[in-house]
Amino acid sequence: MVQKITRTFAVFASFMLVSIVSFAQNASVKGMLTDSDGKALYNASVTVEGKSKGAMSNDKGFYEIKGLTAGSYTLIYRFMGMETIKETVVLQENQALIKDVTLQSKAKDEDEVVVIGYGTSRTKDLTGAAITSANVLDELGAVVDAIPTAVYGSEDLHIYAASDVVRAYTRALGGFQSGGQGANGYENKGNNQSLGSLFFDGIPVVAIRGAAAGTIIAAEKSNLFFGTGLLNDLNEVRVIDMAENDGSQNVRIVMRFTAGVQYAQVTDIVYRKTV
Length: 275
Description:
The chain is α+β, with helices and mostly antiparallel strands and about 280 residues long. It folds into two domains: about 30-120, Immunoglobulin-like (Sandwich); about 125-225 and about 260-275. About 15% of the residues lie in helices and about 35% in strands. The chain is built from four helices and 20 strands. It has helices at about 1-25, 135-145, 165-175, 245, and strands at about 25-35, 45-50, 55, 60-70, 70-80, 85-90, 95-100, 100-105, 115, 120, 125-130, 155-160, 200, 205, 215-220, 225-230, 235-240, 250-255, 260-265, 270-275. A six-stranded mixed β-sheet has the order 11-20-15-12-14-13. Strands 1, 4, 7 and 8 form a four-stranded mixed β-sheet that branches. Strand 2 and strand 3 form a beta hairpin. The protein is globular, with a radius of gyration of 26 Å. The model is unreliable at about 10-25, about 110-120 and about 175-180 (pLDDT under 50).
């Protein structure tokens, strides 16, 4: 009987301990992230300095960090091309603090900061003029020259380029650029040909549709990952049984979530953009 009571008390004590811990971690901070023009910043990062907690803003600029205990925190707000901001907040138990932040564009000569998970690192960034068939070879060459030695020669190294870059490169190979690729073009076939797979200095060139004009990225395929925000409370995946609606055995899948490309080692990536 004593043993049973002791076991029951231990279970009860464990339950109370978990409840107390859960109750203690009930503060949160949320808000809107915008630029100087009041436009929402999508996929901006908010991290808690010194802790593995953070959030990414959704397409409305909204972010929320839950599961915080009462106390003082330094929040770090980052977005590519914007000045990084640090804000100190003090949270009370059960408090849902609203913290709206406006980020300002950074000077063009500063290094770009890219967020990886809940840490930061620096890319090898290049800037240049608008891409044309006359300068595309030089611009691609500048990207290749900036590739880290440890990465250059990797079997899965690729050059990912915006559509205008690929178009200019194809035209240059076809002989329609002023820099001297040859009037007859690639393999003396002129511009009336299918070039198939494109390479530059032996590195595959892949078109990334939807990228900003002039964008060129050199990276290993194994260093790029598809990431989603499905764990965020603002995203959802639901399966709807249609039997009650139309008597069929069909289902509908509703998916609302953020997604994008994430990186493992950002220092191994070269990023070129148009000024």
